[in-house]
Amino acid sequence: MKVVQLGPYPPPHGGVQSNLVAIREYLRRNGHACDAVNLTRFRRESQDGVYYPESASALMRLLWRLPADILHLHFGGDLTPRLLGLALFCTAIPGRKTVLTFHSGGYPSSPAGQTAAPGTLRGFVLRRLNGVIAVNAEIAALFGKFGVPAERIRTILPFTVPQPDKTLALPERLSSFLAKHRPVLLTVGLLEPEYDLAMQIGAMARILEEFPQAGLIIVGAGSLEESLRRQIASTPYAERILLYGDMPHAVTLRALLECDILLRTTLYDGDSVSVREALYLGTPVIATDNGMRPPGVHLIPASDPARLCDAVASLLRAGGARTAPAGDGQENVRAVAQFYGELLGAATRSERSRRQA
């Protein structure tokens, strides 16, 4: 089986990127070919089957010549005309099956999502795809509103959790911070307004009153980096907060093991990969209630620093007990590979039937 995945390829490291890489690594470990095509503005040298086309025309030429049985698109955010055009182009390449994973968990409730209908351009393009993967039940229902047949829809959570390498040497900046601070709170995401990070930084003042050795590690990259650094520097507890920046996934998993609580405070969010990973690894999670958090998450209202502080204090007073991992963390990526096999098997049966006719 030859698969080409299209989407954001790390760095930076985010949920969609981690899902794309996990699928690629799983396929290659199991004897399949899997290339990746980066669709973001970040550019690097193309190597080891990872491509960075510089323009839309370069992307189209690349897709036309790359051997593939499956083209797997990874979209987040909105279904823009640009992304729809790419999906439509992929469906026109002969000899390929096209699959889309739509990672935007909040899209169904957005104004755009509320207008879902078969007669839209989005509906036309989505029905051209051979298969669609929803990251939650709401997106699966949304595909149905666009007229996608139920047999083409799969609901597969977009995360896998490889066992953290406990022998991995942590970067000095991270290990030094962990050695000096306990308990340690960790937040993983983008440095963007929807993650409400300024609220977390402000809440540390009250948290430190009860837990004076506490620390907060903020992992991620984004447009708010400079403003967050200024906010941290203006506090009397700046040394208690580490704005780390982007972090490789393997290190993030180790950090999830080393920290005491994962924070996920958001104004707009889907089914967070970091939340799922933390739960799998047994790390307690406090997250904004977005209506789709998995069982086991300690929920708080949006933009409520008092409730955040209360939740942190309650968990730490109780000892922040960890739970044991369940499964091997690869169940979801196996489901994706199985979906590929079903699509290719159906194609083989259809071709055999045509020949017999």
Write the layout of secondary structure elements.
Layout: E1 2-7, H1 15-29, E2 33-38, E3 50-51, H2 56-65, E4 70-75, H3 81-92, E5 97-102, H4 121-128, E6 131-134, H5 137-145, E7 153-155, H6 172-180, E8 184-188, H7 197-210, E9 215-219, H8 225-233, E10 241-245, H9 249-258, E11 261-264, H10 273-281, E12 285-288, E13 298-300, H11 305-317, H12 331-356
Parallel strand pairs: 1-2, 1-4, 2-3, 4-5, 5-6, 6-7, 8-9, 8-11, 9-10, 11-12, 12-13
Helix pairs in contact: 1-12, 3-4, 7-11
Keywords:
seven-stranded parallel beta sheet, single chain, Rossmann fold, alpha/beta, 357 residues, 13 strands, 2 domains, 17% strand
